[in-house]
Amino acid sequence: MENDILEALLSVTLLAFATTTCSLLITCFIVHTYRRFLSNSSSSLSERENLRYDVDTMMVEEEEAPQGLHEFVINLIPSFIYNTTTKSEQETCSVCLTEFKDNDHVRTLPLCSHIFHHDCIDVWLRSNTNCPLCRSLICCHLCCLLTSIANKDGRVDFPVLPPYSFASERSL
C-alpha cells in the first residue's frame, strides 16, 4: 500500500511538473509572438512616421527655398573694369569659367574678394546669398535687413520706430 501511495504521489508530481513545463513553454511562445507582432507594427508605424516627416520636410524645404539678394543690395557690391596689367590671383570667372579680359566689367565680393563677371555674379546673386567659389555669405546684417525691407520696385523704406519712452516701461 505504501508503494501505491508513493507511486501515486510520484505520478501526481510528474504530472504537475509536465503541466507546469508545458504552461511555461506556451506562455513563452505567446509572449515571443506578441513581442514580434508589436515590433513589426511599431516599425511599420515608425516607417510611416518617417515617410510623413520626409514629405513634410521636403515641402517645407521647397517653401523656404533660399532666395537671393535684392537688386538694390547686389548693386551695392563694388564693381570695376578689369585690367590684365593689374595682377590678380584669380584669372577666370568661376561662374562661366571664362578668363577675364581687358575692359571686362567685374564685381569683387566684399568678404572673400573673389572676382566674377558683372553679369555672371548678378544672375547668381539673384538666387543665392553666398559666393559661388568659397560659399562665404555675401551680405552683412545691414544688407540682409535692406533685402528684407526692400520693395519690389527697388525702393527701400526704412521702418519708422516710435520714440522710446521710459514711462511705458514703468507702467508694466
From TrEMBL:
What region holds the RING-type domain?
93-135
The transmembrane residues are 12-34
Look up the domain of life of the source: Eukaryota
Gene3D superfamilies tied to this protein: Zinc/RING finger domain, C3HC4 (zinc finger)
Q: How does it sit in the membrane?
A: Single-pass membrane protein
Location within or outside the cell: Membrane
Reaction catalysed by this chain?
S-ubiquitinyl-[E2 ubiquitin-conjugating enzyme]-L-cysteine + [acceptor protein]-L-lysine = [E2 ubiquitin-conjugating enzyme]-L-cysteine + N(6)-ubiquitinyl-[acceptor protein]-L-lysine
Pfam families named in the record: zf-RING_2
State the similarity comment. Belongs to the RING-type zinc finger family. ATL subfamily.
Q: What is this protein called?
A: RING-type E3 ubiquitin transferase
